[in-house]
Amino acid sequence: MNKLLKLPFALLIGFAVLITSCRKDDPEPENEEELITTVRLTFASVTGGSPVIAIWRDLDGTGGNPPTVDPITLQRGVTYNTTIQVLDETKTPAGNLNEEIEREANEHQFFFTTSGLTGMTIAYDDTDGNNRPIGLRNRVTTPNNAATGTLTVILRHELNKTAAGVANGDITNAGGDTDIQTAPPFQVTIQ
Amino acid sequence: MRKAGIYILILVTLVCTLLVPHRVLAQMASDCHYTVRGEIREMESGIPVLGATVYIRELGRGAVADPDGKYTIPNLCAGDYTMICQHLGYHADTILIHVHEGFIQCNFTLAEADIQLNAVVIAGERALPLASQPAAELTGQELQNTRGLTLGESLRGLTGVNSIQTGPAVSKPVIHGLHGNRILILNNGIRQEGQQWGAEHAPEIDPFIARRITVVKGAAGVRYGADAIGGVILVEPAPLPVHAGTRGELNLIGYSNGWGGITSGQVEGGSRRLEGLGWRLQGTLKRAGDARAANYLLSNTGVSEANFSGGLGYRKNKYGLEAFISHFRTNTGILRSAHIGNLSDLERALQSPRPWYIRDFTYQIDNPRQAINHSLLKISGFAVVPALGTFTLQYGGQINNRQEFDIRRGGRSNRPALDLQLFTHTLDAVLEHKPVRRFSGSAGVNLLYQDNNNLPGTGVTPLIPNYNSFGAGAFATEKWSTEKWTLEGGIRYDYRYLQAQRFNGVNQLVKPDFHFRNLSATAGAVFYASERWNFKTNLGTAWRPPNVSELYSQGLHHGLGAIEEGNENLQTERALKWISTVNYTGTRLSFEGSLHYNRINDYIYLEPDAEPRLTIRGAFPVFRYTQTDARLMGTDAALAYQVGSGLTFRSRASLIRARDMVRNNFLIFIPADRFESSLTYRKEKPGKLSDAFLTIGAVNVRHQNRTPEGVDYANAPDSYMLLNLQGGITFTAAGRPLTIGLTVSNALNTAYRDYLNRLRYYADDVGRNVMLRLKYEFGKIQ
């Protein structure tokens, strides 16, 4: 073989040795920190009694298993102090995302959309540092007649909290990214 | 991985056996029927230089230019020659040529001696991939007119080339409807390896490095290996200086849309003591704020970029060695309004005439954004082995780090949501054998090793898994040339190994591996019917293994509010592309037209599921990677007509038709029909001011009505027409040229959306942009 070709061939073989001797450490699974699996609603009647609890849960995140949704049964003509708990139940103990939402209250707000529940009102009962609503605590007042319908809970992040109607719970101009949208919605029965 | 070593040894043996016959053949006598011809023009004015002489140093014979500045040297044997052109009152110009084809065109531009300008030594014939595949080039003034644009945008003016945009700063080139992993980019001879699979992942290349950008529009699998299905883009710097002296240039660019500024400079030189030793340093800084559509600001579309490169080489006629390093760093904002939570957010964006998030103009780049670092080290050498030919060896090492920052909760926004590091090593050994009779050709091996890692700590399940990949290929191409004909063919074998390291549904580590093998071939012909007409045709195959994102991506794609699922049963994608070109060069009219047909078997694409998936963030459409057979065909045409003295009319058209042959449907994301016309007035020689020109042009992009039903979120946007203006002039003071250029793109500030802009769901495309360029050249090289 020509002398001039010896160096290239030495390099070729060197390259082969280099890459075959590469060893790689096994990766560790990444800890999914911002997963939300669960929305837990607690309806505590202002007149006392045991609260009504409803859970919307999807443990596999964007995976293919459908979520499970508890039905909600409320009494007519009652005001409920309603709290929302946002959880990551893939962790033990379950991650409580309420803390993050409260810490960044200026960037978060819940919205509620209902269908078929004429006369039911949902009023914000908490405020952020700028005196604008968050929606982790609310007052839900049921109508004086029986009804059935649905309730969807939406959480927006980095929204425009000053836009028209947003402070009153109108989502139309809110913008931002949706962090939670309970689809399918909760089935609500007012009896 | 031990297996890989064995494969390399087999390949080394294979290439050894390939080389032997050439060595034997090389000792036979060569034919002497080649012709070199060309034009000699003045550098400043472009007027022909009557009476200049051209001679071949090795043969001691030559020719004299006629009144049109044209010369012809017939009856040359195949081989490498030094051509020297000189004339009284001008600096001599030297060009190295490699004669192995029927006609060689070799043009000289002479600089007047009294203005102390330097002619650049240009390598005459470059080893273009294949003579029968059409190639479009951006060089000289045309390249200068694109300075300041991204690589993808720069190429949009070439026929058959488009770009996929993700806002104003992220642009991926598209050749004949194909992009990403279906085209190949060679940056200074090294295949660019980043995370090409993402449509919002632009090539990590500073276009200021290039002195020439070439787009090869055929399937070039034989010469370059995997991925060259649609074509190849070659980004080439000028050769390093070999003569003593120092020179440089400084580019200053400012533009109104985004109030951006670019500074790019380079200095190069050659050693006085050691003839052949040359160096170059080059760097670019770029900063721009929020771009503006016709009627509103595109908030968070700023960009900040800092790039540098350096080269050092020693080059003699018979051997040379060169090292090149480059570093590319960018921080690019992505339109804030394009970051969405779920499908209802997207629908909301589609219904709104304006993006929901518009802030005051700022240079600040917030999340979502991309921070990318790309480093390249290239070491290459060549040696002319008299009995064999020219042997070239090059090593390329690349580190690509891609960080994507998202809008996150809990103070995590300063932690990347995606943090990928990709190491790529390539080694290419090519022997271009000494021409034997009418034959010339080359053979070689290409090796590739990749290691891709998700850097831990993102707090987000990785979109693609870690992997290691090894590739090896061996090829041979051969060309037979006469005065009228060039026939060529080539063959290649590739092997690719891929091992992924991923976590299954229950967080157990699994390491699936894949072996891909492919045989590629190409054949083509060029017929030089006359000095004015030539015809080219090429049939080539190319392939690509499915990439790891197609095999294993799993999860939510934030930019599009869609869940994408990989498919580990995907097979190799194989393409057969035929392209034929006719070329006419007359005194006033020149024309190039081509037809292309690309059949891609097992074309990988995303197929939508019928039902959206319900998650806690709402409903999302689900797309799964699957395969079909696809057909893309079309035509490119370009003509230039000299209307009168200094006035030239140009027109270009690119049309593509693409179909899914199995489902009998259209393919998504295929460029719409595009037509361009322009009128240029060029003043030949206005004294101390030179190269003055003014161009008015219009681009018309039709509505894409050939889209698959029910796959896209919105209909393709309407047709649009943009008016562009461009002008330039060069002032020369004390022998130092200062070139000023002005471009007004979208001069009428038209509000429009382009089908290939991924942000068209959210906002209009960019509005009027006035760009001013200054280029100052200094120093000299002998």
Tell me the β content of chain B.
over 45%
Which structural category do the helix and sheet elements of chain A fall into?
mainly beta
Distance linking N and C termini of chain A: 95 Å
Low-confidence stretches of chain B: 5-30, 114-127
CATH structural class of the largest domain in chain B: Mainly Beta
Number of helices of chain A: 2
Stretches of chain A where pLDDT is under 50 for at least 5 consecutive residues are none
If you compute it from the alpha carbons, what radius of gyration of chain B comes out, rounded to the nearest whole angstrom?
26 Å
Q: Main traits of this protein?
A:
heterodimer, A: 191 residues, mainly beta, 5-stranded mixed beta sheet, 2 helices, elongated, B: 782 residues, Immunoglobulin-like, Maltoporin, Chain A, 22-stranded antiparallel β-barrel, 6 helices, 47 strands
Structure write-up:
The complex is a heterodimer of chains A (191) and B (782). By secondary structure, chain A is mostly beta strands. Chain A has one domain (34-190). Chain A has two helices and twelve strands; from the N terminus they run αββββββαββββββ. In chain A, strands 1, 2, 3, 5, 6, 8 and 9 form a seven-stranded antiparallel sheet that branches. In chain A, strands 4, 7, 10, 11 and 12 form a five-stranded mixed sheet that branches. In chain A, strand 1 (38-45) and strand 2 (52-57) form a beta hairpin. Chain A is elongated, with a radius of gyration of 26 Å. The mean pLDDT of chain A is 87. Chain B is mainly β and 782 residues long. Chain B has two domains: 31-125, Carboxypeptidase-like, regulatory domain (Immunoglobulin-like, Sandwich); 231-781, Maltoporin, Chain A. Helix content of chain B is 7%, strand content 55%. In chain B, the strands form seven sheets. Chain B has a 22-stranded antiparallel barrel. In chain B, a hairpin with a 4-residue loop joins strand 2 and strand 3. Chain B is globular and about 80 Å long. Chains A and B meet through helix 1, helix 2 and strand 11 of A and helix 1, strand 26, strand 27, strand 28 and strand 29 of B.
